[in-house]
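Fill in residues.
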């Protein structure tokens, strides 16, 4: 896992340098302290998917290029078979699988996300990112916390929200929750 983090960090750094963007300018664009951004770029800290999404947007590249080192090639359609998406375990609370990594010029980033149950009383990890997000529960029960609201979603339920607001997800019960997340 640590090697994967370092590979992604190296790609981010190289693309930032190629784009002639300073560490300070990138950190400012991401609303992060320059030290925090440098930690991401040096492979010292794991980069959350929401930050990767914004880095890709700022560097004008597809996020899959940051994850895999390869530019997407498909223009008309792309098929991702069950459990064959590009794994992107970017935060320890969530296991991401990119399911449209090979499609060029996406207007959204779709993922299948798995959240494992935590002990009762565990605090939900919160984050925010520019744009909007759509989540559709495929399996299990998911607790979503957003802007002082707690919503319980069952299999087949969905939520669409402004992802600029701090939000977090947690599996409810003894089984993992799996959901489709689309970041716009």
């Amino acid at each position: 896992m640590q090697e994967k983090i370092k590979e992604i960090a190296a790609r981010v750094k190289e693309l930032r340098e190629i784009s002639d963007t300073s560490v300070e300018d990138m950190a400012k664009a991401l609303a992060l302290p320059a030290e925090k951004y440098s930690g991401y770029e040096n492979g010292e800290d794991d980069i959350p998917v929401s930050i990767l999404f914004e880095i890709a947007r700022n560097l004008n590249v597809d996020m899959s290029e940051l994850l895999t080192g390869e530019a997407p090639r498909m223009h008309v359609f792309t098929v991702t078979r069950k459990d064959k998406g590009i794994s992107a375990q970017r935060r320890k609370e969530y296991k991401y699988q990119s399911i449209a990594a090979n499609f060029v010029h996406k207007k959204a980033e779709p993922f299948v996300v798995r959240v494992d149950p935590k002990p009762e009383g565990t605090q939900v990890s919160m984050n925010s990112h520019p744009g909007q997000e759509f989540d559709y529960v495929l399996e299990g029960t998911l607790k979503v916390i957003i802007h002082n609201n707690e919503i319980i979603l069952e299999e087949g339920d969905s939520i669409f929200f402004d992802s600029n607001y701090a939000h977090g997800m947690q599996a409810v019960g003894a089984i993992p929750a799996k959901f489709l997340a689309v970041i716009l």
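The chain has a mean pLDDT of 87.
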